[in-house]
Design brief:
Layout lengths: L5 H16 L23 H15 L16 H12 L1
Helix pairs in contact: 1-2, 1-3
């Protein structure tokens, strides 16, 4: 598995969120405490699935259905922490 620094993970997570939601670069300006689920109209259940698929492809891990809940997508920080945890 590739070693990622937390800062690099954060940048990559935001880039993938931006891509999946079609935010045209807006996500790259998000801060760790930026709320996601419920705050971004573009982030619906289908978008969540798309983001998770992009994470699996980019980072090379598998996400089980039982690993995800609303808290994962609460803020940028919780989403980055999830990815970092999956990467070990």
């Amino acid at each position: 598995m590739t070693n990622f620094k937390l800062e690099d993970i954060g940048r990559e997570v935001l880039a993938l969120v931006d891509e999946a939601l079609g935010l045209e670069g807006r996500a790259l300006l998000f801060q760790p405490d930026t709320p996601l689920l419920g705050a971004l109209p573009e982030l619906d259940s289908m978008a969540v699935v798309g983001i998770l698929n992009l994470f699996e492809e980019r980072f090379g891990f598998i996400i089980g259905d039982d690993e995800i809940d609303g808290a994962t997508f609460a803020t940028v920080e919780t989403l980055v922490a999830f990815v970092a945890g999956k990467l070990g």
